[in-house]
Amino acid sequence: MGHLRYVCLRTEFGGIPAFTFTMKVKDLMPMYYVAIRGQDKEEGAVQRVLNSRRISSIKNYILDGNTFFSSFILNWTEKSSDIFHELNEIIIPIVFDSIQVIDGQHRLAGFEAAIAEDESVGENEILVTLCQRLTTKEAARIFLNINTEQKPVPKSLMYDLFGEIEDDDTHAINRITDIARDLNESPNSPFYKLIKFPGNPRGVGSIELSTFTQSLKEHVKPGGTFSKFKIKTYDNQRNLLENYFNSIKFYYDEQGLWISKTKNPFVKAAGFGGAIDFLTEHLISKCVEKKSFTTETIKGIIALKGTSLITWDELKNHDGKTARKKVKQLLEENVLSSLPSQDEYEF
Questions:
Q1: Cα separation, 206 vs 268, whole angstroms
Q2: Which residue among 32, 230, 252, 316 is the one 20 to 30 A from 61 at the CA level?
Q3: Count of CB atoms within 10 A of residue 333's CB?
Q4: Of 116, 150, 184, at which residue does a domain stop?
Q5: pLDDT tens-digit profile of 28-73?
Q6: Do both 194 and 141 map to the same domain?
């Protein structure tokens, strides 16, 4: 077994020993791997599923001659061999898939994609901080420290990492706020720049954050609807809501209605609430049967027709409870109309 040797700085952060040094990208490539939270059961699994668009952007950034000054946080997990520290040097055995990424997975995937196009990229030096055999709790502390202090990440991520929360109400409000902020900032979201947060200038946003909270609160609690159907993580809950409303948006876009603040019922409290009622009472179970929550699957289930679309003009003179019920009924009726005829059933 070969070894790599680097001059390093040995430090200790919060009781966790760490070694900081520079190494060539090509030396790390065969040894690193990513453990995904909620999928991989091993210690230290705190990462999310990779985002392909972000990797492509980083690859292009690297190929343009750029590099990264921030450290890559790594965790040596190999059980059959140890890293060693002698004087001012660290000695690392060369073992495939022995170094787990705690922070920097997208940057490393970007480097890997860049090397596939230009092998010389592998000669680039990167700054790494290497720990040894961290527990999941230790890895999560590092991950949350980096992301909470340097860039915003969901507060409710604590529940996904540890399965522990202060109380159900606090968790639900944090989770909904996290999702709403993400949906408001993502260009691919049906609610891009449409959500009104407390303190927004007058005229900014259409649908109140409080509408999201009131409609979703009971469903995102640990014992709520999403949890019952095993849709527990931040990513899955967020993606479900984005795919669902993008499916509705598809049909409303065909009629030019989604972009109209006066006609789109789903940026009003009653319309959004009715849509959530339908989602939690009917759609989730149908998607579970198909084992799919993709936009295409959901579009096939709700099968909205242009002639049946309901607008806010038709609802604004009704009380909130009635308007909410009518939106739910719209979605239910189109599901029923998309069912096969009796003659198509096999008995």
A1: 8
A2: 32
A3: 13
A4: 150
A5: 999 998 876 544 444 444 445 577 778 888 999 999 999 898 899 8
A6: no
Q: Where is mean pLDDT largest: 46-60, 145-159, 323-337?
A: 323-337
Residue 43 placed within a domain: yes
Query: What pLDDT is recorded for position 160?
Result: 56
Q: H or E segment at 86?
A: strand 84-86
Range of the domain at 294: 167-338
Among 82, 117, 150, residue at a domain's last position = 150
Q: Put the strands of the sheet holding 125-132 in their side by side order.
A: 9-13, 16-24, 125-132, 72-76, 99-103, 32-33
Alpha-carbon gap, residue 133 to 135, rounded angstroms = 7
Any idea which residue has 């709700």 for tokens?
A: 302
16 and 132 both lie in a single domain: yes
Q: Same domain, yes or no, for 196 and 263?
A: yes
Which range among 48-52, 122-126, 187-191, 292-296 shows the weakest confidence by mean pLDDT? 48-52
Pair 6, 90: CB distance under 8 Å: yes
Q: Please say whether the beta carbons of 33 and 122 come within 8 A.
A: no
Answer yes or no: do 232 and 275 share one domain: yes
**Spatial distance between the Cα atoms of 116 and 97, rounded to a whole number of angstroms:** 19
Beta strands 125-132; 72-76: pairing state: parallel
Sheet holding 89-93, edge to edge: 3-7, 89-93, 84-86
Interstrand relation of 9-13 and 195-196 (parallel, antiparallel or unpaired): unpaired
pLDDT digits (tens, 9 = 90+) for 276-293: 999 999 999 999 988 999
What the block records as the tokens of 206 is: 């259409």
What is the reported pLDDT for 46?
Answer: 47
Percentages helix, strand, coil for the chain (3-state, rounded to 5) are 50, 15, 35
